[in-house]
Design goal:
ten-stranded mixed sheet; Alpha-Beta Plaits; 10 strands; single chain; 16 helices; globular; disordered C terminus; 4 domains
């Protein structure tokens, strides 16, 4: 193996490389020198291998290691490639030519909500913020960043800043998909006036408006937002074809389904009256009826802090939520008497709002009940926040089977504009993706069925556990097989906040903001505690 195959940092490893070469060619005088050399090589080798170990491997062993590591790199690159850290290479249209750049000051603007469907499996996260591009950590391949890039390329927005006032109906985790995610943003409009339409004013016009407000108001003046209704579609034919332009630019795993004008100050998060999630999983040997009955204990108004993750972002929020419905059932048309363990089940959960990781943690508890590891009474115990202070460290389920199914709004706030041509295009794209993956699924199912034919009944019952294992397997492997109440408890909200106060004080001290640190300690400061203290 040629020495130039090892690409080490020269500033760190040049002396070590020279020592290694000298040791291989001339040998070491003593065993102590050889051991010291091995120890120094391991110090700078993060993979845990020293060169002697690698050179003593057989050729086929090295080839196997290279192939295995290359596969790991390939799977990592899909989601974290440096060429798509912000989604720009996913856009299917080029940057606009300089001579074709639109002057946004010549257009009116409009607040528009978009209903978006996306497959989140190949994205590191969903949400993007205006501060994301200011840090290396923020440069991730996320759904909203790709959406923003499509808006930019199609010149619907002039920049990615506070002017566009980005808002969303919900914030999903990594690898979670969405069917009815809603994104609202300020875009340019072809209309002179209409629902949600306004003119971008210059400084002189804003100053003149302030002066006019001091005068006696005109009794016949009607604000723009009162002149038109959200259901007024008389001018839609003159509007920019938002959906078509965005779908032309977006990758096929992000599709815009519909759009609606909204008021300039309308909040999607506050205005959403109901959110619905669906979690899909194979039946395996789970007791679905027992899981459904246990899920009804969660319906109603409860403090769900033991079914959610406390973070610096939500530690001051209200953990009391009202769950409207929680249904678990085997999906119709997905039943196979020959392979009942392969039946696909669906949990549908509706509420006005959820706390962080609530759906995946509730499903984790219900899976434990369905497997027979826990009794349904564990739900009553976890809902008793006086008895259980600090959530036991049971792990959430995976995000791939989770779907943000629907976000509902009042009719007076949102009125979706659907387009038959767009829906046909989206359905065609999804049909192609479905058929590609469905054929793979059926082939795997056929091989699985064939492998079971020569097994006895007991062996087959043991294998059934593997059908749903990939869904219910714990992210924390040390917690597998343990009762929930036997697991180590996380900090409760008060302990977590006290810890964040200490961290905030240390950050402020490092910045020389001693008075702010003193006030945070005394609880008399308006400085954000936790993640926002870095602002």
């Amino acid at each position: 193996m040629a020495m130039n195959k090892f690409r080490l940092k020269d500033s760190i490893c040049k002396p070590l490389r020279a020592l290694w070469v000298r040791g291989l060619r001339n040998g070491f005088e003593t065993e102590e020198q050889l051991e010291a050399h091995k120890k120094s090589m391991r110090k700078y080798n993060k993979a845990g291998y020293d060169y002697e170990y690698l050179f003593n491997l057989e050729k086929h062993q090295l080839v196997y290691k290279v192939i295995r590591l290359q596969r790991q790199v390939d799977s990592y690159t899909i989601m974290k490639s440096v060429t798509n850290v912000d989604g720009r290479d996913k856009i299917r249209v080029d940057h606009p030519d300089p001579e074709n750049v639109v002057d946004h000051s010549e257009f009116n603007h409009r607040r528009v909500a978009f209903k978006v469907a996306y497959l989140g499996w190949d994205y590191m996260s969903y949400a993007w913020s205006q501060n994301s591009d200011r840090s290396i950590k923020g440069h991730t391949n996320n759904v909203e960043r790709v959406f923003m890039e499509a808006l930019l390329r199609q010149q619907l927005i002039s920049g990615v800043g506070r002017k566009i006032n980005l808002d969303r109906a919900g914030r999903t985790d990594s690898t979670v998909s969405g069917l009815s995610q809603v994104i609202a943003v300020n875009v340019r409009s072809n209309l002179d006036e209409g629902f949600g339409v306004w003119k971008m004013k210059t400084k002189e016009e804003r100053d003149h408006e302030k002066e006019s407000l001091k005068e006696i108001p005109d009794p016949n003046y009607i604000p723009n937002y009162l002149k038109y209704s959200v259901k007024d579609r008389s001018q839609d034919s003159r509007e920019i074809p938002y959906v078509q332009l965005l779908n032309e630019a977006l990758p096929t795993d992000i599709r815009v389904l519909a759009w609606s004008p909204v008021l300039s100050k309308f909040s999607l998060r506050g205005g959403c009256v109901r959110r619905t999630y669906r979690y899909f999983f194979p039946k395996g040997d789970l007791d679905i009826d027992l899981m459904h009955r246990a899920a009804q204990k969660l319906v109603g108004v409860h403090d769900f802090r033991n079914f959610g993750k406390v973070s610096s972002e939500n530690m001051d929020h209200n953990f009391e939520k009202e769950l409207e419905s929680f249904d678990i059932e085997i999906m119709a048309g997905r039943c196979d008497p020959a392979l009942p363990e392969c039946d696909i089940c669906c949990a549908t959960i509706s509420a006005s709002g959820f706390i962080y990781n609530q759906v995946r943690l509730m499903m984790s508890v219900l899976m434990s009940i369905g497997c027979g590891v826990e009794e349904p009474s564990i739900i009553d115990t976890l809902l008793d926040t006086d008895k259980i202070r600090g959530r036991p460290s049971y792990s959430r389920l995976g995000g791939i089977p989770l779907l943000f199914y629907d976000a509902e709004f009042r009719d007076c706030d949102v009125d979706w504009r659907w387009d038959d041509e767009t829906l046909q295009s989206v359905a065609s794209t999804m049909a192609e993706l479905w058929s590609h993956n469905a054929m793979k699924s059926e082939i795997i199912r056929a091989i699985y069925s064939s492998a079971l034919q020569n097994l006895n009944h007991q062996d087959r019952m043991d294998i059934r556990n593997a059908v749903h294992f990939d869904v219910i397997k714990s992210e924390n492997q040390s917690s597998r097989g343990k009762k929930i109440l036997e697991m180590e408890k996380a900090k409760d909200v008060k302990e977590f906040r006290d810890k964040e106060v200490e961290r905030t004080i240390r950050r402020l001290q490092k910045k020389g903001r001693y008075n702010d640190a003193k006030n945070v300690k005394a609880g008399t400061s308006d400085v954000y505690v936790g993640w926002a203290s870095d602002r």
